[in-house]
Amino acid sequence: MILGVFIDSIKRLNSIDFKSDDFIPFEVQKKINDLKNTKVKEQHIASFLLVKKAFDTLNIKLNLNDLDKNSYGKPYLKNSNITFNISHSNDKIILVVSDDKYLGVDIESYDRPNLNLDLLFKKILTKKEQEYVQNSSSFSKAIINIFSIKECYLKAIGTGILSILSLKEIEVDYDKSTLFNKEKRAIKFHKLNDENYCCHISNFN
User: Fold this and answer.
1) Average pLDDT value for residue range 171-186
2) Of 9, 42, 116, 132, which has the fewest Cβ atoms less than 10 A away?
3) What is the dihedral of CA 37, 13, 108, 33, to 10 degrees?
4) What's the Rg (C-alpha) of the chain?
């Protein structure tokens, strides 16, 4: 079950003086400050502060010492049945908290001028998905939606996108809010789309 969905602005979160917040240990702050890429640095700060906000709101006790990552880099809480996942696109960041074993979230901006939609159409879509896209009112939005759904599922199982092949092993029935994994298991997903962004959540046991 999803316990909470939290959406915020990366710029707004970065306006907070996170150094004064003892939730983030000094050594972690130092690692963030040492990052060369400003965008990545801002994403890290926003992620930590949104995690704090979410767990405080949900009255869930959290210590950063309980955080760990799996072999693919997905963060999780040790010795806890609480799961969480984060995604960001442009200035938007979203965090979802759940008590399901598997949880993934992906947010994508529809404004992606450098995205090769024709390549994605050929490489990541199954024949049924291609038919859906061709019949949709917006070719670009339909492709980005399907890509987002596949990514949130792969984040849920903890691997993320390993290859183009891993995306094509999943088939999405967008109208029924269902995806079918490579084992043909039907898994429901949630849509949180607006005019400028699509967002999808995959949570299951």
Assistant:
1) 96
2) 116
3) 20
4) 18
